[in-house]
Write a structure and sequence with these properties.
Elements: H1 2-7, E1 13-14, E2 20-21, E3 23-26, E4 29-32, E5 37-40, H2 41-53, H3 69-78
Antiparallel strand pairs: 1-2, 3-4, 4-5
Length: 85
Amino acid sequence: MWNRIEESQGQTMTTYRGLDFSYTVKGGCIYISRKNKEITLSSVKLAYEEAMKLDRIVKGPKKLKCFGASYLYPIFLEIGFIRKE
């Protein structure tokens, strides 16, 4: 999954609330363009675990229960890791 996240960096994505952003990956962190935020690999792992508990059907970012969920949610959708249904 981390490889797919790296491959999608630089693409413009949209949050659940309609805000555009892009990101870059350096080391074990995702850097979000919109807010100068850094999402660590440990937060990605937490979101991954929550998504797995939901059988990868996630109805919104809050369901991921981690820091940066509003950005991880569209990233996970883009790479095909989760679905909205």
